[in-house]
Amino acid sequence: MKAFMDEDFLLSTDTAKELYHNFAEKMPIIDYHCHIQPREIAEDRRFENITQIWLEGDHYKWRQMRANGVEECYITGDAPDREKFQKWAETLEMAIGNPLYHWSHLELRRYFGYSGILKGDTAQEVWELCNRRLKEASMSARNLIKQSNVRVLCTTDDPVDDLKWHKRIRKDESFDVQVLPTWRPDKILHIEKSDYTEYLKKLSKAADVEIQNFQDLKNAIRKRLEYFKCMGCCISDHGLDFMVYVPAEDEEIERIFSDCLQNKKISSKDRAKFQTACMLFLAEKYEELNWVMQIHYGCKRDNNRKMYKKIGADTGFDCMGDVTSGTALADFLNAVNERKNLPKTILYSLNPKDNELIDTVMGCFQDSDAVGKIQHGSAWWFNDNKTGMVKQMTSLANLGLLGNFIGMLTDSRSFLSYSRHEYFRRILCDLIGGWVENGEYPRDMKALEKIVKGISYNNAVQYFEFQV
After folding, report:
1. In CATH terms, is domain 143-464 a member of 3.20.20.140?
2. pLDDT tens across 425-449, in order?
3. Residue 247, Cβ density class (10 Å: 0-12 exposed, 13-18 middle, ≥19 buried)
4. Residues 58, 85: Cα–Cα separation, whole Å
5. CB pairs under 8 A, 24+ apart, for 225-229?
6. How far is Cα 266 from Cα 114, in angstroms, rounded to an integer?
7. Per residue in 147-182, pLDDT tens?
8. 110-114, long-range: CB within 8 Å, 24+ apart, which pairs?
């Protein structure tokens, strides 16, 4: 029997061990999509205790605590941090087979030097050890990033953001990790929301453009895109419930936008037309700017309305959506490609039934503009576990070129989440090592080194054209 989480954790063959320890283990990290707050990096935040750095804003853990019958006051409420940590330790004890069990123990080992097991009756010793370590200078936000060997970190930012924290980081020569903004224009697309006109006022002010029609909106977007570009942005990201493609004439879009400004109710069909027009315009601009377009879809959000009204969005009440998006996705990419050359694009679906769909759709739009121009993004959110990662990579290998895959991202709000890259790389090496030992790929270590190092780091550097 293997020991729990030993040096060969998740590596089941000799080839897998060789690939991981010789090639993947020490590669740097490109974190091209995360939700870390740039202010915390700019101010080099220090954390008073393990609850602050581990449980604050982590809806992955919150969901499991609720599943363990923990009262909300210990999750998002005002219970003392020590008591919240105790409830998490007791929950983790029951999380056999869950990636949080692995991530949590990897983080305890890599950042705190704790090789024991966190559970209810060890919570006090872990609490004391972690809190002692957090007092050390090496455990500040910036130093956690640096000791994780991160070279580039891309945050998630609204078009109205002034990016002042990014400016502060750029001016500070003592911190050599690139922290770049990512353009996340979700609020521009949600014309049906009751607060949409209030958001337009913010956008108007940020762009210094009076927005009275759809053309004005596009002008405001252009100005904000240029501002983000000046701040080093080269990636956009769209969080969609599902893909839409309902094209309409310009006059129709102007009519819909006018209805919105007059506070008329927007139908679902008009919403789809407006979102299609916005996405087509934005994709054209991304191509002009040489930006990468990310599209995340397949989520059904805020399902527990009672809790949404109580504590708001992004608190652990989202799930996979099952709206079929394949036809709309293919038609949208085709329309962009016909109007203006398709930008480099990364596609993610929260529903794993879409793995093969994405891999076949993107094969229709690959060309010589870039290696792996259209990417199947890493297993996302509810899929970033061992099973989900293997399924995503196996589908990509079956229907595309796994060797050109740009690899893992954290998609996290935590400065300790970089252990997820280790988790991913171990699973990657085990998958490839298994194919080699089963005679499905030659034991050509030069070729395997290129593939493993590429997926771990090099492919992302080349794809995003980062200067590292």
Report:
1. yes
2. 999 999 999 999 999 999 999 999 9
3. middle
4. 13
5. 225/159, 225/183, 225/285, 225/289, 227/163, 228/157, 228/159, 228/163, 228/181, 228/183, 229/289, 229/291
6. 54
7. 999 999 999 999 999 999 999 999 999 999 999 999
8. 110/419, 110/422, 111/139, 111/144, 111/147, 111/416, 111/419
Percent of the chain with pLDDT over 70: 100
Residue 117: closest CA among 84, 148, 95: 95
Helix, strand or coil, per DSSP, at residue 375: strand
SS3 (DSSP) at 236:
strand
Contact present, 294 and 377 (Cβ < 8 Å) = yes
Query: To which H or E segment does residue 412 belong?
Result: none
Average pLDDT, integer, range 2-9: 96
Where does the chain hold its CATH 1.10.2020.10 domain(s)? 46-138
**Tokens 């804003």, residue located:** 57
Q: Using N-to-C axis directions, what is the helix angle for 326-339 and 268-289, rounded to 10°?
A: 50
Instruction: Give one word for 69, left, alpha or beta, with left for phi > 0 and alpha for psi -120 to 50.
Output: left
Say how far apart CA 278 and CA 196 lie, in whole Å: 15
Measured distance CA(87)–CA(97) in Å, rounded: 19
- Distance, in Å, from the CA atom of 220 to the CA atom of 229, rounded to the nearest integer, reads 14
Do residues 369 and 409 make contact, with C-beta atoms less than 8 angstroms apart? no
Is beta strand 319-320 parallel, antiparallel or unpaired with respect to 299-300?
antiparallel
Cα separation, 102 vs 88, in Å, equals 14
The arrangement of secondary structure in 46-138, i.e. its CATH architecture, is Orthogonal Bundle (1.10)
Distance (Å, whole) CA 258 – CA 270: 12
pLDDT digits (tens, 9 = 90+) for 318-358: 999 998 889 999 999 999 999 888 999 999 999 999 999 99
* Mean pLDDT calculated for residue range 399-411: 97
Which ranges in the chain are annotated with CATH 3.20.20.140? 143-464
Based on C-alpha coordinates, what's the Rg of the chain? 23
